[in-house]
Structures are given as C-alpha cells and as structure tokens.
Design goal:
With 196 residues, the chain is of the alpha+beta class. The chain folds into 3 domains: 4-61, OB fold (Dihydrolipoamide Acetyltransferase, E2P), CATH 2.40.50.140; 65-132, DNA polymerase, domain 1, CATH 1.10.150.20; 147-191. It has 8 helices and 5 strands, in the order βββββαααααααα. The chain has a 5-stranded mixed barrel with strand order 1-2-3-5-4. Strand 2 (16-21) and strand 3 (24-29) form a beta hairpin. Helix 6 packs antiparallel against helix 7, helix 6 crosses helix 8 (183-193) and helix 7 crosses helix 8.
C-alpha cells in the first residue's frame, strides 16, 4: 500500500494531479489541485490508498494530520471519500476540532453536500472520534494541536499569498527548531525562512 510520495507534478486536471517519481506517474485525487499546486513543482503528499471492488484511488494530503482526519471522517457511516476530502479541504484539523467544540452546525453545512441532518450526525460522531486524532505520528491533540497556533500561522501565511507547499515546508522546519514560540516570533521566523 502506498502511504507517501515525493515527486514532480507533471499534470493537473481537476480533481487530480499526475505526480511523477522515479519515472512512474501516480494519478492522485487532490480535490481542487489548481488552487494548491503548479506544474513542474516538487510536491510531497501523504497518501491514502482507497480500494473497493470496482476502483482503486489514491487520495493525497499535504500533511499527515490531514490524512488522519480524512480517515476518521471516511469511517463515519454515510460519509464517502469525496465528502470527507471536501471537509479536510475546508477545515484544518484544529479548525474542525474547534467547530465540534462549539457545536457549530452551520460551519459544517458550508461543506458541499452536507445538509443540516448530516451535519448534526457528524457533530455527534466527531465529538468522540476526534479524541483519537493524530496530527503527526505519535502526536495527539493535547501535544500541540488544540492551541491552534500552527493553524493560525498557516492561515496568516495563506492570506499573504504564499503557496501551500512552501507553507507546509516552513512549518515543518519551525516545528523541528523549538517548541516555546510566541505567535509573533513564529510569524517573524516563518517570513524569514519561507523564500529561502
């Protein structure tokens, strides 16, 4: 089973990209890739291999947390992989945890294909299921997700127009450096490093 791919984007055709690594091209579902990727750029994706009798599909995620959130959502009865992916695209894991904590039904209804009844059922299911969430291997929400600082950094860099791949790389670099950031210092260091 494929779990991770690093390669170069050969083609973008919504909702997929063709990611080439070692001479092999992988067609990967990425929701709205034209908003996230550019041709010929290097890209790393966490992969979920979706297997059914009549189909084999690769779903790609820019973060391990996004992949795990997708798996939690897709395991809920009545939530298919495309709906689960749409939720992951709309909310960061931190944002979804906050939506569930606030019992914000309307926020979930912003996802295409989710009506009020489905949103209410999702809210009940997610309340218990998100306790098992992992933002990275071995890291639970209590060890850094709930504070929302990394999600705030991501949102800030996105609003400044930086590409998602660059944002993911700089966040990974900063996470390795130290753990006692203030939001101001975090943003300052991110802006310094993002174009290097």
């Amino acid at each position: 089973m494929i779990g991770y791919i690093f390669g170069k984007i050969k083609s973008i055709y919504d909702p997929n990209i063709l990611l080439v690594t070692n001479g092999v091209g992988y067609e990967i579902y990425c929701g709205t890739p034209e908003k996230k990727y550019q041709l010929d750029e290097e890209c790393e994706l966490w992969i979920h291999t979706y297997v059914r009798e009549d189909q084999l599909k690769l779903f790609g995620f820019t973060t391990y947390g996004g992949k795990n959130l997708f798996l939690i959502l897709n395991a809920i009865s009545g939530v298919g992989p495309k709906t689960a992916y749409a939720i992951v695209e709309l909310f960061t894991p931190t944002q979804l945890i906050e939506v569930v904590a606030r019992n914000d039904i309307q926020a979930l209804q912003a996802v295409p294909g989710i009506g009020r009844r489905t949103a209410e059922r999702l809210m009940l299911e997610l309340d218990s299921k998100l306790k098992k969430f992992r933002v990275a291997p071995g890291i639970t929400p209590e060890r850094g997700l709930v504070s929302g600082m990394w999600a705030d950094l991501r949102d800030g860099l996105t609003s400044l127009g930086f590409h998602e791949i660059k944002i993911n790389r700089v966040i990974q670099m900063l996470r390795r450096e130290k753990t006692d950031w203030t939001m101001e210092k975090l943003m300052e260091h991110a802006l310094r490093k993002i174009n290097k």
